[in-house]
């Protein structure tokens, strides 16, 4: 059994972060319980050894909360600090476990925090603002890779690159790869070696692929995430590589699907193979279970989590079942 944690919005029936037991043989989700009361914990992330968990509190006055993961998998609140911006929507922790970065969507900035040995967060040691006089910034996600920090800004239509210099992050590039106008980069996935990046663009419903070079990244291609026959409005949300990096998945809110791509591991190019209905409404975040055999989707508006079996040969999805939960928006194993 694996434990699945679920971040939610609490402006309805939800009370915070929930947990389920997940059977990695059958795909069943059971034993739902409230893991921790928290206000709008819309994105959650682990410390590297999974001893601690960090949850944004997505409000006008944004905060980030730290929790200890107990032996019985319940969560104990440690502390919370300001994210120095409105509506934080993403948090990531570096592989050393000593820093966290929080993206503030409405604030248009991101905050960097050091983490104490007991998992507690310190107040921000650096806040970087992307706002300009003419463009509204919407920092949507950020990830550490060694000494680099990549930040996806939907409003600025770019993925920024920073590098750690002594104790502060300095700008390397305001755009690692040229994106089509009004793409709206939201989240991205890096291969384990850092040689390829896949950026999912919320506004244009596309994925942009790029390859690492000596001087940064080089554009490979930009592909639609939607079925050729779909004509309505749709907005991308989340993106993940499969465990073996042979396949790439993205979520479409509107088409209400998960798009599946087969990935050429040498060239980095993608070939679309499936647009699978999520059996719900507004697929926000999704995740792949630790075995790599199942994909689970948080359907925000239909208040359910859908479970799919992954075909290990083709990477395509087969729907198994769904469980109810109010306003699920982030899934974490």
UniProtKB/TrEMBL annotation:
<dbReference type="InterPro" id="IPR011048">
    <property type="entry name" value="Haem_d1_sf"/>
</dbReference>
<dbReference type="GO" id="GO:0005829">
    <property type="term" value="C:cytosol"/>
</dbReference>
<dbReference type="GO" id="GO:0017057">
    <property type="term" value="F:6-phosphogluconolactonase activity"/>
</dbReference>
<keyword id="KW-0119">Carbohydrate metabolism</keyword>
<dbReference type="Pfam" id="PF10282">
    <property type="entry name" value="Lactonase"/>
</dbReference>
<comment type="similarity">
    <text>Belongs to the cycloisomerase 2 family.</text>
</comment>
<dbReference type="InterPro" id="IPR015943">
    <property type="entry name" value="WD40/YVTN_repeat-like_dom_sf"/>
</dbReference>
<protein>
    <submittedName>
        <fullName>Lactonase family protein</fullName>
        <ecNumber>3.1.1.-</ecNumber>
    </submittedName>
</protein>
<keyword id="KW-0378">Hydrolase</keyword>
<dbReference type="InterPro" id="IPR050282">
    <property type="entry name" value="Cycloisomerase_2"/>
</dbReference>
<keyword id="KW-0313">Glucose metabolism</keyword>
<dbReference type="GO" id="GO:0006006">
    <property type="term" value="P:glucose metabolic process"/>
</dbReference>
<dbReference type="InterPro" id="IPR019405">
    <property type="entry name" value="Lactonase_7-beta_prop"/>
</dbReference>
């Amino acid at each position: 059994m694996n434990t699945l944690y679920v971040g939610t919005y609490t402006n309805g029936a939800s009370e915070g972060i929930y947990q389920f037991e997940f059977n990695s043989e059958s795909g069943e989700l059971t034993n739902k319980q409230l893991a921790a009361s928290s206000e709008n914990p819309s994105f959650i992330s682990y410390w590297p050894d999974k001893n601690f968990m960090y949850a944004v509190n997505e409000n006008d006055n944004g905060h980030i909360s730290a929790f200890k993961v107990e032996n019985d998998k319940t969560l104990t609140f440690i502390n919370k600090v300001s994210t120095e911006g409105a509506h934080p929507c993403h948090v990531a922790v570096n592989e050393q476990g000593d820093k966290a970065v929080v993206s503030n969507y409405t604030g248009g900035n991101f905050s960097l925090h050091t983490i104490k040995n007991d998992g507690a967060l310190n107040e921000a040691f650096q806040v970087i603002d992307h706002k300009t006089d003419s463009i509204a910034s919407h920092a949507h996600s950020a990830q550490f890779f060694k000494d680099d920090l990549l930040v996806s800004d939907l409003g600025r239509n770019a993925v920024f690159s920073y590098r750690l210099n002594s104790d502060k992050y300095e700008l390397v590039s305001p755009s690692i790869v040229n994106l089509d106008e009004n793409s709206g980069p939201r989240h991205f996935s890096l291969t384990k070696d850092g040689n390829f990046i896949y950026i999912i663009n919320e506004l244009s419903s596309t994925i942009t692929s790029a390859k690492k070079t000596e001087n940064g990244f080089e554009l490979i291609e930009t592909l639609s995430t939607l079925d050729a026959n779909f004509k309505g409005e749709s907005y991308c949300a989340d993106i993940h590589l499969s465990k073996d990096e042979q396949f790439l998945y993205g979520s479409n809110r509107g088409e209400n699907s998960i798009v599946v791509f087969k990935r050429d591991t040498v060239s980095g190019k993608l070939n679309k193979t499936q647009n699978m209905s999520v059996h719900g409404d507004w697929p926000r975040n999704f995740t792949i279970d630790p075995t790599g055999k199942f994909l689970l989707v948080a359907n925000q508006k239909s208040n359910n989590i859908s479970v799919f079996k992954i075909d290990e040969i083709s990477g395509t999805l087969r729907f198994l079942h769904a469980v109810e939960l109010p306003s699920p928006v982030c899934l974490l194993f």
